[in-house]
From TrEMBL:
<dbReference type="Pfam" id="PF20434">
    <property type="entry name" value="BD-FAE"/>
</dbReference>
<dbReference type="InterPro" id="IPR029058">
    <property type="entry name" value="AB_hydrolase_fold"/>
</dbReference>
<feature type="domain" description="BD-FAE-like">
    <location>
        <begin position="32"/>
        <end position="242"/>
    </location>
</feature>
<dbReference type="InterPro" id="IPR050300">
    <property type="entry name" value="GDXG_lipolytic_enzyme"/>
</dbReference>
<dbReference type="GO" id="GO:0016787">
    <property type="term" value="F:hydrolase activity"/>
</dbReference>
<keyword id="KW-0378">Hydrolase</keyword>
<protein>
    <submittedName>
        <fullName>Alpha/beta hydrolase</fullName>
    </submittedName>
</protein>
<dbReference type="InterPro" id="IPR049492">
    <property type="entry name" value="BD-FAE-like_dom"/>
</dbReference>
Amino acid sequence: MIIKKRYVEENESGAYFTAYLLEDSKELLSGRKRPVVVIAPGGGYLFTSDREAEPIALKFLSLGYHAVVLRYTTGDMEGNKVGVGKQALKELAHTIRYLRRKSDLWMIDSQKVVVCGFSAGAHLAASLGVHWQDQSLLNALSNQAESDQIKPNALILGYALLDYNVMLKKAEREDLDEKAKANLEFMKIANKALTGKSDLSQDIVKEYSPIYWVSQHTPPTFLWHTAKDNLVYAENSLKFALELAKHNVPYELHVFQDGEHGLSLANEVTANKKEQIDRECEVWFDLAVNWLKKYVTL
């Protein structure tokens, strides 16, 4: 295996990605290019979670995919750094373009670039999935980027925030317990880190909710969530799936009955407490890979 670290945009941000590349071998694919999975960890746009980074990459590597972990720009809990959403989106687009430009050297199949995101990282992945054609995003990238250079070929979205209206309506409920109230306070900080605003107007809600920008050009999408997620509610994935269906975009959706937010692989590899181990949810990865074979084959 070859490991390469690259800064996304020198002198502009500290974002970087780590590429885990399987070496060519006469006993394996021998000269054939491999698909690549770009992983966007979660963390509420306040950090990028280690639990949703390298362990996911190693899992894909074990199945013959190249894997890339993107550490995109995030804000901070103190509110000193906010409004990072557009920068993070540009970094993800830049990373995909870079991988396609290196496809011959790094033995990457440029038509098999998948983005796998979790929570805030899944919001980022979905945002690229619905905005990859936007001229404003292309203009933000240097060297006259073309839309097909930054388009993902498929998306895998784990417990993604996809519709801010779902979040705002839940916040208005009066029957919230103390944990739910604490989660809402965290979301307020995360919202500001993403958008730069403490109060989300409907214009901002629409701008940062991928659900409102789904089109026939959105890539095929695999979604998974848990019904008991009390931080990013499962309605996000349900409503996004409905929009995909309306636009005839292929998708697969799994909502598991139990399990908290942030499960990652839902096993001992990524758990830092027993609640993050869930055997029923652990199957999401196998389900996602089986689905992915319809669009991205080795």
